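May I ask for a sample protein chain and its fold as tokens?
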Amino acid sequence: MLEGASSLTQLKTDRKEYAVGDHVVISGNSYTEGYDPYIAPSLDGTMSWEADGKPVTEALSLHATAKNSYRGEFITKVPGSYTFVTARDPDGVIKFEVVDMRLEKTRTALDERLLQAMAETAGGQFLREEDLYKLPGLLAAKSATVATFKKVELYQSAWALTALLGFLFLEWFLRKLARLK
């Protein structure tokens, strides 16, 4: 069963979190009391959220796209918790969050404690701008040799060729001594 769905209304959103100004698509199916497909040109409901500390409610109709399938769009206006409920089935509630994604309102200051914790976890060291002169020395001290393996084909190996020719020469020489052809 879908999250927030009831036995009569099974609606969903594409995501659980949206940014301000995003298009929210609500879609799903609706059924009658006898669990037959509910067939109507639209499914009316209300979208609720809080703006400036005051609850706001707006009517929203989902339009029929197939036999008992409905779809509607809504553009988010303010950050907060949004709820959609149909008029014919108040048990089928859809909830989603809207967040303010404006980067200019985010905290952009240097978080030294977080950077130090990240460096410690990764086995590195946190350096501020005034300490960058230490970086070449730290890199040289941490440098290590890495073993690399090179695959050489047998026909390209000088030792393998020498051993093969030596074996053939030895066989030829032993045949000559034994007077074999």
About this structure: The chain is about 20% helix and 30% strand. The chain has a mean pLDDT of 86.
